[in-house]
Amino acid sequence: MLISSRRRAALKSFFGAVLLAAFAGCGGGGGGSVSSEVNGGGSVNIGGGDSVPAPTPAPAQQPAQSRFYAAWTAAMHDATMSLPGTPAPAAQTFNNQTLRQVVRLSLGGDSLRVKLSNLFGKGPVTFSGVHVARTLAATSDIDPATDRAVTFGGQPTITLQAGAEVLSDAVPMPVTALQNLSISMYFAGPTTLPTVHSDGRQTAFIVAGNQLAAPSAQASQAEQRESYFSLGSVEVSSTEATRVLVAFGDSLTDGWGSAVNGARRYPNLLDDRLKAAGQARIGVVNAGISGNRWLHEFFGPSGTSRFERDVLNVSGVTHALVLMGINDIGFSVEPMPSQPVTAQQLIAAIAAAASSAQARGIKVLLGTLPPYRLAGYYSDEGEAKRQAVNAWIRSRPEGVEVVDFDAALRDAADPTRLNPAYDSGDHLHPNDAGYKAMAQAVDMATL
Fold first, then answer.
1. Do the Cβ atoms of 186 and 128 come closer than 8 Å?
2. If one looks up domain 241-447 in CATH, what number appears?
3. Which one of 72, 144, 203, 251 has the minimum C-beta count within 10 Å?
4. How many CA atoms does the CB half-sphere of 99 hold within 13 Å?
5. Are the C-beta atoms of 109 and 237 separated by less than 8 Å?
6. Share above pLDDT 90 across residues of the chain, in percent, rounded to a whole number
7. pLDDT for the residue numbered 62
């Protein structure tokens, strides 16, 4: 019987498939690269039965996000504020002058931005120009190669209305931790700046004309100040994980009695400890105001009214170290006996601040109030209040950490007095050695 060519081709394909299956079943195909299975229905599957889907590729790793963190801060207050019944002081004025201010950065970063403040202004303030540059030897001299103009919404000048603050555009300027930075401001016309941080412990220089980019801004002694004017913060950007501790308090935090231009406040010295221990991404910034109190205005806004602005709203804040209350106690004796404060009121104020920070996920450290016998506003009644506040702090309320500044600074022979080796001379404020002892009292493992 003749078989058509089409049928011959079909049979050839069928027998070829059977032979190929038999060959594969006998172990052929180069070490099992081809396998077969005969199903109950007689069908033949080549390639090992059910197919295995290709693995899903892992998602591409996203680059770390760059964020801004506070690298330096100064708590602002009203330079014209006065105690009841006393004349208001005059605010600093400028006219066709450049103001150069020096700050020490706690963190390094790839770029920076500055915050200007007219928080306590009585009218608009115009900044005719702002520059930043690396400082040479903590003086008025800068490295001209690092000089950068600062802009605000792309503009080199800005006018702030009364009560306003503004962050600048990012300035592409790499900086390092513990580096000194100069911020120069030019005021073309008559300008009054009541928004200030009086106890700067750092020399500022005032020179005639527009000298924003001048390599040096040497000023006469009469044209030097130790305050910060309208400069609220410097922030730096980084993709690295970063922690920021805000030290909040009064003159004990602000560093009254420490060396001018020496960066010897206890927050500075704590910062030095952290960096020496390799903790380059833990920053320490200062929110102290000399003379500040929890419950009353002067010096500065009350602690209860400024805590949100000066601590909770600081860029990148993760920790708050709170040390304040001795002025509330002492001012009840001198100079404001008409503003008495109880230990219970102080405890309530401190507890409220700690709770508000914890509600934002901020870790809280509370500092005990150091001894102050022989200080001008000391009283036995006030000492009893101090002891009551410290006892409450040492009880670790609401899970806070405790920094026992009292134990670190007191005289072993008389625990109600400062250790004479740590006394700046007024029996209230530490000297540089005392501020170092305060910095040593902080357990870095809690940060």
1. yes
2. 3.40.50.1110
3. 144
4. 21
5. yes
6. 82
7. 65
For the chain, how long is the longest CA-to-CA vector?
132
pLDDT tens string 119-151: 999 999 999 999 999 999 868 999 999 999 999
DSSP 368: P
- Is residue 421 classed as helix, strand or coil in its secondary structure? helix
- Three-class SS of residue 272? helix
Domains of the chain by residue range: 78-234, 241-447
Sequence-ordered list of residues with C-beta below 8 angstroms from that of 34, at least 6 positions apart, any chain: 24, 28, 46, 47
Is the CB of residue 244 less than 8 Å from the CB of residue 69?
yes
Beta-bridged to residue 191, according to DSSP, are: 94
Give backbone dihedrals phi and psi of 329, rounded to 5 degrees, phi first: -70, -50
The rounded distance, in Å, linking the Cα atoms of 30 and 126 is 84
What are the tokens at 282? 């833990």
For residue 55, give both structure tokens.
Answer: 């693995």
- Adjacent-strand bridge partners of 114: 234
CA nearest neighbour of 101 among 160, 180, 17:
180
Omega cis (within 30) before 68: no
Decide: 228 and 263 in contact? Cβ < 8 Å. no
Q: What is the DSSP letter of 60?
A: P
Average pLDDT, the chain: 89
What is the spatial distance between Cα 260 and Cα 139, in angstroms, rounded to a whole number? 12
Q: Sorting pLDDT into bands at 50, 70 and 90, what band is 5? A: very low
Q: Do 120 and 301 form a contact (C-beta atoms < 8 A)?
A: no
Determine if the pTM surpasses 0.90: no
Count of Cβ atoms closer than 10 Å to residue 406 Cβ: 21
Residue 323 in contact with residue 247, Cβ under 8 Å?
Answer: yes
Residue 68: what are its φ and ψ, rounded to 5°? -95, 140
Ramachandran assignment for 154, one of left (phi > 0), alpha (psi -120 to 50 degrees), beta (any other): left
Locus of tokens 């934002």: 360
